[in-house]
Amino acid sequence: MTIRYLHTMVRVADLDKTIAFFELLGLTETRRYDNEAGRFTLVFMAPPGQEDCPVELTYNWDGDEGLPSDSRHFGHLAYRVDNIYDMCQHLMDNGVTINRPPRDGYMAFVRSPDNISVELLQAGDRLEPQEPWASMENTGHW
User: Fold this and answer.
1) What pTM was computed for the model?
2) Who contacts 88 (Cβ-Cβ below 8 Å, separation ≥6)?
3) What is the extent of the structural domain holding 93?
4) Which of 25, 80, 109, 138 could connect to 142 by a Cys-Cys bridge, CB 3.0–4.6 Å?
């Protein structure tokens, strides 16, 4: 018996803000499905060249009373990045809070506008600790 990964689905309250957040991470929209009868939109986003590993953003047109919530029951999405410091700076420059800074040169956590926890991991070896990251405290929870 074989199994194949298809996607991870997360519910979102503001589709445009969430798409913009994932675009900051470098993901692009690979496909979209609007369902008039069900009153929802599905947007699939993936890193370039990895279209077979998308995150599915599910937006209910009439709102979703459960969002935003803590979302800790979901866990997190994880992405490998070429330079964790550059990515965190890019996100900060665009108004994203770094909840768990990459003090160790390897791992950071941020949250999407819908409170989805996103883990960022340095590709290859850890980078040497550097400021401002090395002394930056956690913000909120991740």
Assistant:
1) 0.79
2) 98, 101, 102, 108, 110, 120, 133
3) 76-142
4) 109
